[in-house]
């Protein structure tokens, strides 16, 4: 293959390198042993508090305790039961310690999840979350959005009342239709991989939702310096990957070397194109014998493309790929703002 052709192909491959992502490196735990608590396997980024600190992610959130064969996670001053840790999708499922599966007289312990003390490395797994409000009233309330729950009424909410009445409702319904004789005592939520039906659930179903628990994802522990470097970290095909984007609103002086190179790419192209000259593109230079036979039979077109045609076709493909990614960036500086 002629050297000038190789030079052109190398230059054309530059945008592809700018658009690619890379997998984040896993933590080296070769010197650590896998722990367990009951039926739950505990390994990086989690560890038992009795394990060496290097065997878990350096955040107190990931240090678990084991009580009567049940793993416990601490969020601020709250302690939740760990129902499952799924390492394949980087998730952990938690339940309130006051909820006992099948025992519908049990009530949540905590008034709400202490998000202020949760780890920055934890994010919601599912987009489908349902929030329930436990309500205490000083008198009976006839509201179709309220589900009677006599076991979880909070007598301290109305100390002068001879009797209190407990209800459960979805958060939105609770606040939009809150009776003057009622207060919201607790707010809890559950997660699901499928959408929740928009209807009033019986309390047994609500209790089953809470018994299943709510889930967090901890894939952020593998993101490293991806986010600080204007990257977007996500899980793709079971692996944590980092994609870097160049944003138009970022001043050129603050952009990374890769983004500066993307910015100057068309200008570099205009400079080196005269040096490369017009190169006739012959498909026979890039195919093997079997493909060449297809060319001879007329099954593949035999085109002669100049360097300019090849470059501008490639730029159009590049711009289309970027638009599909819906990223706030340009494939080619000087193009119209998306």
How are the SSEs placed, and which strands pair?
Elements: H1 3-12, H2 14-19, E1 22-23, E2 35-37, E3 40-42, E4 47-48, E5 63-67, E6 70-75, E7 78-86, E8 91-95, E9 123-124, E10 128-137, E11 147-148, E12 165-170, H3 171-176, E13 182-192, H4 203-212, E14 214-217, E15 231-236, E16 239-244, H5 257-276, H6 289-296, H7 307-325
Beta-strand proportion: 15-25%
| SS-based class | alpha+beta
If strands are numbered along the chain, what order do they take across the biggest sheet? Answer: 4-5-6-7-8-14-9
How far is it from the N-terminal to the C-terminal residue, by CA? 39 Å
Major beta-sheet overview: 7 strands, mixed
Number of strands: 16
Q: Cα-atom Rg, whole angstroms? A: 30 Å
The string of secondary-structure elements, in order, is HHEEEEEEEEEEEEHEHEEEHHH
Low-confidence segments = 18-24, 286-309, 319-338
What is the approximate shape? Answer: extended
Range of helix content? 10-25%
Task: Count up the helices.
Answer: 7
Question: How many domains would you count in the coordinates?
Answer: 2
User: What value does the average pLDDT take?
Assistant: 75
Quaternary assembly: single chain
